[in-house]
Amino acid sequence: MSYSVGQVSAFAGVTVRTLHHYDKAGLLSPSGRSQTGYRLYSDADLVRLQQILFYRELGFTLDEIAAILKDPQANALEHLHARQRQLRAEIDRLQQLAEVAERAIEVQRTGVSLTPQERFEVFGEITFDLSYATQAELKWAHSEGQREAMARAAAHTKEDWRQLMGESSAWRAELLAAFDEGEPSDGERAMDLAEEHRLHVSRWFTSCPPGMHRRIADDFVADPRAFALVVPPSQQRPGLAAYLCKAVHANAARRAGVRTDSEGDR
């Protein structure tokens, strides 16, 4: 039995244009033509169309489908296993995104309760990247320190933030001066600045023992968004994040009574 392109389009749920495209690509050419030159599809053609639509639903490209149909015994299972792995990875990614969205909602609800104008007035160039804040919330989701920091941040008044940022600005100026003047990262001046930052975190957000402070400093090197919360991009220098990270680690070792070898200036 033969079917016209319109009939196939109707019961297969694809457009006539799609069928023409499959024909032009050599993926599904009708077995026959009517006396007036119209395409006619056989039962075997419909079986092939069903296979094409099945693979399309799984996300295969037309080139991949053509390769599978060309030699189904040799390629189909291999391609299906590969696609299964991809789909599972995509499921994991979507689940992660769903969790990120949930965390983003929490961050928005418990974040700094200032108007945009007040944010600019208080924070200036320091900006809060929602994607980074959300990832941090995910990373430390089971951390009591993270929950305390979020709660205390949400409770800060505008004046609290003004004082906090004033302290940060003064500390940042000292850090830049030490770096620009070539102070060693494990020298007294750099370590004292690292200790001042640790106490600042403890004072305004959550208890920050040296081990936690090291992890925070590691993020400064690993993620520019984290370091931008400490030093805005316009004030950053090449190597400054690593310098601060080394100073934090040196200070943690000093507090533990461990003497470190000099790491050089930067």
TrEMBL record:
InterPro entries: DNA-bd_dom_put_sf, MerR-type_HTH_dom, MerR_fam, TipA-like_antibiotic-bd, TipAS_dom. Residues 1-71 form the HTH merR-type domain. It comes from the Bacteria. The keyword Transport does not apply. CDD domains: HTH_TipAL-Mta. Pfam families: MerR_1 (PF13411), TipAS (PF07739). The keyword Hydrolase does not apply. Residues 77-104 form a coiled coil. Keywords: Activator, Coiled coil, DNA-binding, Transcription, Transcription regulation. SUPFAM superfamilies: Antibiotic binding domain of TipA-like multidrug resistance regulators, Putative DNA-binding domain. Gene3D superfamilies: 1.10.1660.10, Antibiotic binding domain of TipA-like multidrug resistance regulators. This is MerR family transcriptional regulator.
